[in-house]
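Good day; I would like, with your permission, to put a structural problem before you. I would ask you to consider whether the tokens describe a fold that such a sequence might reasonably adopt. The full record is reproduced below for your convenience:
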Amino acid sequence: MKGKKASAYRTVLSIFFILMTPALLAQTVEITNGVTKKMTKYKYFFIRYEPSVFKITVNGKTIEQGETEKIDVKDGKLEVRYDYEFGKHRKGAKVVTFDVPKEKESIKITFGWKKKNRILIKGLKALSVTRIEV
């Protein structure tokens, strides 16, 4: 190709790659909600309490217990929110932000009331925990 045709071809190709770059760089991770009913029960003295509501949301998308979803990671960060309610008297929510390495393809979320961040993801570092008023 010579002259104007070659120049037009390079321009179209350049525009194509510029437009496709964000899609090529986007990271999608397969996330499994591995939180079980046993994990969500809370023991106070000798009594075990079970939440009437317990919900996990990852980057704004709800994942039911035992389900797996593909989630887009935004800027290498994953925001996991959990909402809980024990009857009408005790409820709350927190958001835990994790740093996700590029090579991570799948994640399993677990939970523990006595753990520091409560949301547990093996191999990922929690960056922050934010309490949400409900």
About this structure: The two ends are 64 Å apart (CA to CA). The chain has a mean pLDDT of 87. The chain has one domain: 26-132. The CA atoms of residues 29 and 71 lie 5 Å apart.
